[in-house]
Amino acid sequence: MTSPHADVVFDEARTDGPAVEVKDLTKVYRTYSSSLARAIAPFRKAPSGGRFVALNKVSATFERGDIVGILGRNGSGKSTLSKIIAGVTTPTSGSVRVNGRISAMLELTSGFDAQLTGVENIYLRALAMGIPREEADARRQEIIDFADIGEHINQPVRTYSSGMKSRLGFAVSASVEPDILIVDEALSVGDEIFKLKCIERMGQIRERGCTILFVSHALGTVKAFCTRAIWINRGKLVEDGEVGPVAQAYEEFLRKERASMRSGVRKDAAEDALLEKSDVLEVRRTRLTNADGATTSTFLHGEDVFVELLYTVKRPIPQLTFTYTIHNSENVEVFASDRQSPLMALDTSPGQHRLRARLVSPPLLGGGYQLSGELWDNTSAFFVRHSRNRRFSIEHDDFVGTGIVAIDCELTND
Questions:
Q1: For position 43, what pLDDT does the model report?
Q2: Residue 305 β-bridge partners
Q3: Residue among 19, 136, 140, 27 at smallest CA distance from 75
Q4: Structural domains in the chain (count)
Q5: Average pLDDT for residues 392-397, to the nearest whole number?
Q6: What are phi and psi of 151, to 5 degrees?
Q7: To which H or E segment does residue 207 belong?
Q8: Contacts 24+ apart (CB under 8 A), 337-341
Q9: Does 343 fall in a domain?
Q10: Residue 186 confidence (pLDDT)
Q11: pLDDT, tens only, 14-71
Q12: Cβ 118 vs Cβ 149: under 8 Å
């Protein structure tokens, strides 16, 4: 229920000023010990049951054209914030003002009638979104083409898989031209090709100057797609700023959380000796070295970087592949090795093994970097991390250009 202290305004006609403003936004849910307690609660004079604070005085302003990633663990309040901005639920207190036409991808399959065909559900969903019949007619074929579910479009939705329903739901939601688009875990269902297709469509929407609020656990997608990020934890806004620093702080928080959960298993959190899958494979040590075998985290530009790890195979593994990823200090992915390359295959005979991988003269410019790695089997279903964000730096003092990698140039001047 909205209290007298909550102020919610949606103005589709207004196109000046910020796209979305939330101030001291608070949402409190009542919790009950049983269904009976919930049923009789409205008839009690005094509020009964417990309280769960989903949002606690959250304030933020989203300007027009902002591409904002909303980060946080499950239950942190991300979806509650997106639902309040979308008008699906109301705040307990605080204010929210939305200026412009809004489209929300919250639950892509909601609002479908299982007995109607895909085509009929396009019109049903469009009606629920406030899209006029004429506009739905004009966009019908575009929606069908984007969903790309073939002849199933003329079959009842009850015969669809969850992925097909999501494809149709996204196609309808993405067909409008909103001023503000909210995407809440809409890409969590579907194959990788369709996800890329969805990202491309959202990129087209972004180019029109639309404000996009992107709620996702896929940090890689957030870092690649968004220009800004906010991090919510236990209902409170922790950080708000450029996507790189906020994502890095959130990743560090997750790393510490995982480390604390494993504190009874791992003796030294500084060493990346993870005991996951330890009945089959165990990585005991990972380090970066120079050509002489000395442990180091500083390399000269063009100098070989060596990754050394000790691993023990306890049970037969058909195939094992060494992989690694390099990010720069802003968490931009610089390189990720090929998981399918036969050149990266490891010895999988039972026993302890030592691997020394040589990264040949990486053309990285001066600055800080992070190396993360994993060991994969041939099905990509079994893996063990052998390092996590192991930091190293490249020294390149005589270079006065900019960028991440060095590209040689040969001049011909006649």
A1: 75
A2: 359
A3: 27
A4: 1
A5: 86
A6: -70, -10
A7: helix 192-207
A8: 339/376, 339/380
A9: yes
A10: 64
A11: 777 889 999 999 998 877 777 777 778 777 777 666 778 899 999 999 998 889 999 9
A12: yes
Closest Cα to residue 19, out of 244, 142, 182, 132? 182
Per the structure, the complete domain to which residue 372 belongs is given by 281-395
CATH number for position 330: 2.70.50.60
**For residue 377, is it within any domain?**
yes
CA quadruple 381, 384, 389, 390: dihedral positive or negative? negative
Tell me the three state secondary structure of residue 125.
Answer: helix
| Contact indicator for 322, 358 with CB cutoff of 8 Å | no
Handedness of CA 187, 190, 194, 195 (dihedral sign): positive
- Please tell me whether residue 230 adopts helix, strand or coil conformation: strand
* CA-only gyration radius of the chain, Å: 26
Nearest to 59, CA basis, from 240, 258, 327: 240
In a domain, 263, yes or no: no
Within a domain: 194: no
Q: Among positive and negative, which fits the CA dihedral 41, 44, 50, 54?
A: positive
Structure tokens at 92: 């307990």
25: left (phi over 0), alpha (psi -120 to 50) or beta: beta
Q: Shortest CA distance to 227 belongs to which of 17, 16, 65?
A: 65
- Buried-exposed string 73-105: b where 16+ CB fall within 10 A, e elsewhere: beebbbbbbbbbbbebeebbbbbbbbbbbbbbb
Residue type, 409: C
Are residues 23 and 95 in contact, defined by beta-carbon separation less than 8 angstroms?
yes
| Angle in degrees, CA 84, 251, 257, rounded to 5 | 95
pTM (whole model) above 0.70: no
- For strands 20-31 and 321-328, give the pairing: unpaired
How far is 322 from 340, CA to CA, in rounded Å? 10
Q: Do 110 and 142 meet the contact criterion of CB atoms below 8 Å apart? A: no
Asked whether the beta carbons of 145 and 175 are under 8 A apart, the reply is: no
Show the tokens assigned to 46.
């005094």
Beta-strand ranges (E) seen in 243-294 are 281-289
Per DSSP, helices labelled H in 88-191 are 118-128, 133-147, 162-173
Handedness of CA 281, 287, 290, 293 (dihedral sign): negative
Q: Which two tokens stand for residue 224?
A: 């690649």
